[in-house]
Amino acid sequence: MTPTGPAGRAAAVPGPSGPVLSVRDLSVRFAAAGREVEVVRGVSFDVHANEVLGIVGESGSGKSVTSLAVTGLLPETARVRGSIRLAGVEVTEAGPEALRLMRGRDVGMVFQDPNTSLNPVFTTGRQVVEGQVALGRLERARAAARSVELLGEVDIPDPGQRVGQYPHQFSGGMRQRVVIAMAMAGQPQLIIADEPTTALDVTVQAQVLSVLAQRQRETGAAVILITHDLGVIAEVAHRVAVMYGGRIVETGPVQDIFSRPAHPYTVGLLRSMPRLDGRSTRLIPIAGQPPSPSAWPEGCAFQPRCTLAGDDARCRSQAPSLAPAGPAQWTACHQAAEVSRWVQATDSADTGPGGRAIGPTAASDPSSPSVPVVRAAADPAQSVQGRVPAQPRATEVATRAGALLQVEGLQVHFPVKTGVLRRVTGAVRAVDGVSFELHAGQTLGLVGESGCGKTTTGRAIIGLVPATGGRVVFDGQDLSTLTPLQRRQSRRHMQYVFQDPYASLNPIRTVADILAEPLHIHGLYEDFGGDRWVRELLDMVGLSASMSGRFPKEFSGGQRQRIGIARALALKPRLLILDEPVAALDVSIQAQIVNLLQDLQRELGLAYLFIAHDLSVVRHISDRVAVMYLGRIVEEGAKRTLYEEPSHPYTQSLLSAVPIPDPSLRGQRRRIILQGDLPNPARPPAGCHFHPRCPQVEPVCRTQVPPVRWLHGGATRGVCHRVGADVPSALAVEEVA
Fold first, then answer.
1. pLDDT tens column, 605-641
2. Cβ contacts of residue 110 below 8 Å, gap of 6+?
3. What distance lies between CA 727 and its chain's CA centroid?
4. Which CATH number fits domain 395-622: 3.90.1150.10, 2.50.20.10, 3.40.50.300, 3.50.30.30?
5. Given CA atoms 386, 389, 390, 392 in this order, what sign does their dihedral have?
6. Is residue 282 a contact partner of residue 598, using CB atoms and an 8 Å limit?
7. 579 φ, ψ to 5°?
8. What are the start and end residues of each CATH 3.40.50.300 domain in the chain?
């Protein structure tokens, strides 16, 4: 994908075959409210064999619509203009039969949710080769054997048995690998992977990316990888296209984009990311929200959010075209020279090799006129100081008394019932003896793969799920001994923020009613100031009080999450349990929420139990970190110690799988291989629960439950027979693709 002029045209790499995919001036319009809305505006690029093109950008930038246009999967109501040539076929002019043949022969699609690609009533073996059989490219007599081959190629264990199983019998990561096998079945020239790892755990993500990269290398296919995770792009892509407002605003080799970004939007994306290898300084988010396709700004679409635009009339009136920013790098920005000057000025002070910190860090002055930034000062939640009304700091009492929250041997077991009489024949040990402490003003990060018991632990603490055993002591009170009325009163000081803000907000109530509801339930509406307190809550989370009459559907995802946080703060709690609060948000909006949470904690002395699977975010916000596996905490310690000197093999594998947004590290990092999937919590393995997947397993691990061992002067505890041992040199590792 190499633009050759301001229009963003792409030239074919010299060679006999030329590009596999060539897109020219692509425009996609949809009918909305009696008029046409242009979602993709003049996109042009090429992709060649053996090339991985990464397309990044916030939600609504046009990434997925572009990929659907390439495959001819847009609805009939879409109006497509421009040219899309795939393997010699002009997609925009092809009929239904030609498109069907093209999709089975020349292009494979991997969607974000594998469940949308797999039919639950057919076996996976049948579905993997179904398209090739239908097109006459595979004889039915060979279909079963070919299914086994394809599942084996994507590392599905025991493929001969698995071909006869159904999608619900596979884990999420295995289902995604089945979809990859399906996409690669016809050995297509182009693979389009649209957010293929977004919903996966970091270890499963690493497995899927490894399989995708391996199959791409073996077949020489061209790949378009669409994602919002810049770390993934840095590890697997050769070239990058950054989309904003329906256009490509910057493109070039991955190393150039990450080390020398030439567009302020690209800089903003990089600076919004918490990093596993960076300093835990304040994130610098991009101000505001991405524009709606129904109301694109005049001129440059990024102008309303860009500090560099200033009073330049060109930014407000003229849409910039792609222009050279380097030997193979192009950017669409009227202020490109200023961005380049800024990057050059800050490289020596802040970045170092690989662009570890783009632009000034929190230690420098973001308001300095000589160092323009992407509106760090415009973060609406930059500081809540002066906007939080005076209130009793109840957390001070807890601080003096010790831990605000003590969890001791917490157990949550769900009965397994079988037979006609539904007799209890076993139990799912979702949480199996979890213990930790949390002090006021501190954050404990709780991490682990899906199914390890993180969310169940949080819900059991607050009482949304009944505990089977153990104790939860909050502010000196054992919650299990309280009467229903006392438990309800205690919940006022413990609040929960859910992952999906839209699902947790009543769609038929206004924001003002949603925020006032907990106050009415506890009879505190008038005592807390009524409508004045509701307005102050909105101001506290960076929203205007004028929005109080709106409904949840009228807000963006980030704004809805702010409303959820405001509702949790309505009763002036001491503890917030945050369950994946930023998992569904774009990186720039994620940075705004993370900054908001840190500001609120600093000003109000809140304690956070921060549940997440993103170890980079957890590192940025937490004071201590606990790692869960199959219902148990296997390691807990101070953030710095746990991340720099992980003791448990599971912690080591999690950290090794986290993508780092630095292309210069590609091939240098080594990943610990975990075999298999998380065991069934209804039938946990004997001895150490981790031993079936552990690369350091010893005979004792299979029979004896490991003891708790304290390391680093008691600052870290690990549950492992080998805890603290060095990783042996013979440990199975693989190069990061």
1. 999 999 998 899 999 999 999 999 999 999 999 999 9
2. 117, 176, 179, 180, 183, 191, 192, 193, 194, 196, 212
3. 29
4. 3.40.50.300
5. negative
6. yes
7. -100, 100
8. 48-73+92-242, 395-622
Contact yes or no for 346/359 (Cβ under 8 A): yes
Domain 48-73+92-242 is found in CATH 3.40.50.300: yes
CA 317 to chain centre: 35
- Residue 91 and residue 99: Cα distance in Å, rounded? 7
Q: What is the pLDDT of residues 45-91, one digit of tens each?
A: 999 999 999 999 998 899 999 999 999 999 988 999 999 999 888 99
Q: What is the full DSSP assignment across 75-103?
A: -TT-EEEEEEEETTEEGGG--HHHHHHHH
Confidence of residue 361 (pLDDT cuts 50, 70, 90): very low
List pLDDT tens digits, range 497-555. 988 877 889 999 999 999 999 999 999 999 999 999 999 999 999 888 889 999 998 88
Rounded to the nearest angstrom, the gap between the alpha carbon of residue 661 and the centroid of all alpha carbons in its chain is 14
Helix, strand, coil percentages in the chain from 3-state DSSP, rounded to 5: 35, 20, 45
Beta bridge partners of 496: 577
Distances (CA, A) of 201 to 624, 626, 659: 21, 16, 12
Cα 46 → chain centroid: 28
